[in-house]
Amino acid sequence: MQIIEPLEQQGVLVRRERDKLEHEIDRFFVIESEGNILGCAALYPFPDESTAELACLAVNPFYRDGGRGERLLAFAEARARKAKFKSLFVLSTRTTHWFIERGFAEADISRLPGRKHHSTITNDARKSS
Ligand SMILES: CC(C)(COP(=O)(O)OP(=O)(O)OC[C@H]1O[C@@H](n2cnc3c(N)ncnc32)[C@H](O)[C@@H]1OP(=O)(O)O)[C@@H](O)C(=O)NCCC(=O)NCCS
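^ Those are the sequences you sent over. The predicted structure of the assembly is below.
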């Protein structure tokens, strides 16, 4: 939470309800060193569409630029491959280039899985109202 909360406040990460987050804790994985969590990410599967969302990728600002973001991404990719998903997607507004430099390509919102497409449009509509 110490890593995620400031990023939610800055609008870098979408805010997740705390009880929902607790419920979904199994989706998360972390980099830990000497009892401290240095970074985290989550993988949300969409089996019907054979894809998965990489979400909540964040590294403690004191530990950035040391390849930890890449390690978390590599772990998510390996998990997605193991589950035989055909693709991995991420919703990003501020960190687009970081992902493009690591093999992602920008795609139209219509390519999102149906369930995700709906909630993203609903959230966008809320933001602009
Ligand atoms: C993106 C993030 C996870 C990368 O973590 P990290 O451990 O610093 O990653 P790495 O060390 O693997 O990569 C660092 C490189 O990414 C670059 N970088 C960092 N943020 C970037 C951004 N927003 N856009 C483009 N490049 C970025 C750094 O300049 C560095 O470049 P270099 O290798 O040429 O020096 C981390 O910057 C972070 O937590 N950002 C805030 C949360 C966020 O934006 N998450 C993505 C949500 S969609």
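The chain has a mean pLDDT of 91. Strands lie at 28-33, 36-46, 51-59, 87-89.

Shout if you want it in another format.
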